[in-house]
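Standup notes
- HV: blocked on the assembly model, inputs below
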Amino acid sequence: MKLYLIRHAIAEDEPRDEDHLRPLTDEGREKFEQAVDGLDALGVRIDKLLYSPWLRAVETAELLSKLVTGETQVCAGLAEAPARAVLAELKGDPVALVGHQPWLTELLALLVHGSTAEGARYELKKGGVAVLEGDPRPGAMVLQQLWAPKVLRKLAR
Amino acid sequence: MGVESLAVMKRIPLDPWLEALEKALKTVRQADSAEGAHDFRVAIARLRVWLTLGGWHLLDDDLKRLRDSAARLRNLDAQLQEQRPPEALAQRWRGERERERQIFLRSLERAPTGAIFEVLRELPAVRRKDAKKTVARLAQKALHDGPRAVTVKQLHRLRRDLRKLRYAQEWLERDAGTLSKAQDAAGAVVDATIALQLSRGDEAPAFRSRKRNELDLAREDARKKWRGVRGEIQGLAR
């Protein structure tokens, strides 16, 4: 299966009482809309979209929803360090996950290397996308692409 | 009145029905009552309309799955309460109902209810201006489906259109009495159909014959009520 790991777009960074309530900034929204157009131009379609319950991820996932051909599902496991519960949800093809750092690259490392420890080797910018292919289990996927948001925006028609 | 108060008036918070859903969820988990599944489904349907009014697509799938998980239980509750089945049939339905309740409770355990509530609590209140535009779109959908609503399936679709429009009006604190009556009339068609689907000819022939007659009358009534509410919906579609 193909798996897209997508980091939320640029969000407000002013301190708030609760981190999970930070929304996207206007700039973050606008830039990610262009990145979604870039994904669209690349022919990306999503059969299942899983998203973290934190507001900035929900808003990012909403912008992606026009690429979804199947179903969407909120996933509490995307707002914490990667656990097997998330892997159990990876059904469909392609699947996209919208989440947060450092957990997304830890998940990437888990799926590619079999261990989350390698996660720090990868950089995933806000609004960036990692593309993996293979069986969604530890060490059984291959990293195919790492798309910076700027590249995706340039691809937008 | 301050600027902040005006801004609040221009928005529609989802709090009342989020609280209703939390309460209904607690009720269905703790006790077994015919109203539990009904209240649970109504709260979800209202929240889904609120999401539509706000232009959200995401959480709709999660809420739909949650609502659908109580559908069979609710159907059996409604049949037992409202369709006056003969005792032998009622007894079979009560047995099925207990099995459905267990299936429903198990699906609730698996559902990401905590995460769904977390997202719902975070979402910003819907802007009235956006909501009014969506009402017009929902009204146009009803006006498309209404004249074509002849078969049970088409009347079921119209019932859903009317329900969404009614809830949207109620979110905007507008009167939705006529819409509610038209929705109920289309609902009677669906209820009679379900009664026929859930019963067998060999166990309740008289009951089924009565339901077939009721179904014919309900279809006529639903069409009549649709014609009665059409003008009001045309006004909303502009």
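- HV (later): unblocked. Residues 84 and 137 of chain A are 9 Å apart (CA to CA). Chain A has five helices and six strands.
- Next: hand off to the docking folks.
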